[in-house]
Amino acid sequence: MAPAKRIVLAGNPNVGKSVVFHFLTRKYAEVSNYPGTTVEVSRGRWQCHEVADTPGVYGLNCANDEERLAREIIDKAEIIVNVVDATRLRRDLFLTLQLLDLGKPMLVVVNMMDEARRSGRVPDLARLEAELGVPVLPAAAVRGEGMSELARELARLCRNPPRRSGGASPGSPGRRQRANAISAAVTGLSDGNTELSAADRWLTRPVTGLMTAAAVLAAIWWVLGGLVAGKLVGFTEGIVMNRWVIPPLTRALNVLLPRGGLLAHVLAGELGVLTMALAYGLGLLLPLVFSFYLLLAVLEDSGYLPRLAVLLDNTFRPMGLNGKAVIPLILGFGCVTMAVISTRIMSSRRERIILAFLLGLAVPCSAQTGLIAMMLVPMGLGWLALYGGILLGIFLAAGVLLHRIMPGEPEGLFLELPRLRLPRPGNVLRKSWAKARAFVQDALPLFVLGAVLVSVLDYFHVLEQLEQVMAPITAGWLKLPPQVVCAFIMGIIRRDFGAAGLLALGLAGSQLFVALVTITLFVPCIATLLVLVKEHGAAIAAAVWLVSIITAVAVGGILAAIL
Amino acid sequence: MNLLAAAPGKRYVIVRIRDEAVRRQAECLGMGEGEDVYCVARQRNGPVILGRNGQMVAVGAETARKIQITLWRPPRG
Ligand SMILES: Nc1nc2c(ncn2[C@@H]2O[C@H](COP(=O)(O)OP(=O)(O)OP(=O)(O)O)[C@@H](O)[C@H]2O)c(=O)[nH]1
Ligand SMILES: [Mg+2]
How far apart are CA A368 and CA A391, in angstroms? Predict the structure, then answer.
């Protein structure tokens, strides 16, 4: 048995490193069709060896955080697996040459051979191997092609790693020329024109692009609002939970537990564990969240998001951002916590902080949106439009303001566009499943905990006292019943939980509207807060938190006065 | 001329990139100083899409203004 080695997967963004990682380690890794999917190093085991999947980088100059991170892992590794895209060798070989110069045992996986074959330009891999002096293997990772050969070659490399001497430093000149020359020799083409495909023309031109974006939004709304919220949730919450699961449990609890006791209140009370965790958490939210992730996965895997970034680039400029910001923002409509991590695809800290603020303040996550839509849609289109308008207005205003007050300069867009691809159903399902599972794992315990907390506070009449203390704000300023305090306490734990608290209150009309806007703008989840602390430090996290509360209460109060 | 003046379908040589970070990244991507690229598409005041061998890079207006180009001429002989 060979001693355990540290293996690193390295390569340009979007070449299929994470697919190869999944194949080797069987560990779940997110795979999407845009550069910058992997933002954190993830590790797994292959045989007795450790394999690390890294964020894609274009070079080892340590020009940004991603490159520094990747460089650190590559430096620690003993064996490098360099994944390259068979149709983008001219680009990829630059990094390959830099990696070679590190002098470590290495092999090159030429991935996407299926697409190279389809375009009729299959590179001469024997020639490439001769030029590079390390093993070169063809692969089409999504089809499993070349993977067993990779495993065999890797095993050989782990058993007796060849000695290789290091070369020039990563900054040395001439590497680009060499990469160009090798690529020209291997692919037999050096100056091919690129024409925008019809689909790309359609997606990136303003008029047709915006039409498509509107159509995509409408389709999402139709599926989520119509099919899922209307029909599926009616079944999962209305029938499965509220008829089949909860009533027998409640009956059993009533037999077992003394009526009016603390435990009965915590479990079966109005805001108890059964209602909150089972009816709302599983019956209502899980189907909504899962369906949203399904649609999101289709968008991610098609390559549509980078086109949207091109289309909206100018729109983001007044906020000190560039079009790339649309990617974390759209991911934020799934889960704000994950989106805050994915802001790492922005190249500057300034942009990441602006985005973190906007995500924490004005982007509702899928679970929260689902609940809010359940209450808002029956009120009619006018209210819905007003709600959207207010959120958008605050989003834009906050962005412009942040751009004004933050020191530093905005970064312009410089983004590679991946090929448009048909999403693979297997990957779409796997990804949505993984995210929905994370939702259940993260949210459900908090729902249970929150339900216990609120029920206990209620049982000991602490809630009543809080309601009285907060009455000047809730009843006086926001003109809401004092009981909303409970929803806001729940909202501090999780935003969607707060919205669920409102649902339980049964408000109507303008009161409901004010409450919905306020809870949307209210503080981000505890989980988001923790990620904010980790990414940007306690000061920024606290600022996001406080600004959210102040904005929420201010806007809510103004609305209450007007409506 | 700068990249914002590029016309779709034409081939250009990148002369100078006046932004350190963009210059480095462009070099890695194979679209650095001295390389030739095609202007694939351009929005009015908006991103320019550069292309070469099927590879496409979108460059925002602000960045495009910092990239000097000239029309590509076929080598003589
Ligand atoms: N046709 C084809 N598509 C592939 C192949 N390998 C990966 N893909 C697709 O390429 C895209 C990128 O794959 P990822 O594994 O996320 O790429 P990555 O290198 O991890 O990307 P980053 O994490 O962004 O650096 C996905 O849409 C995959 O489905 C392949 O062999 N053939
Ligand atoms: Mg990846």
Answer: 14
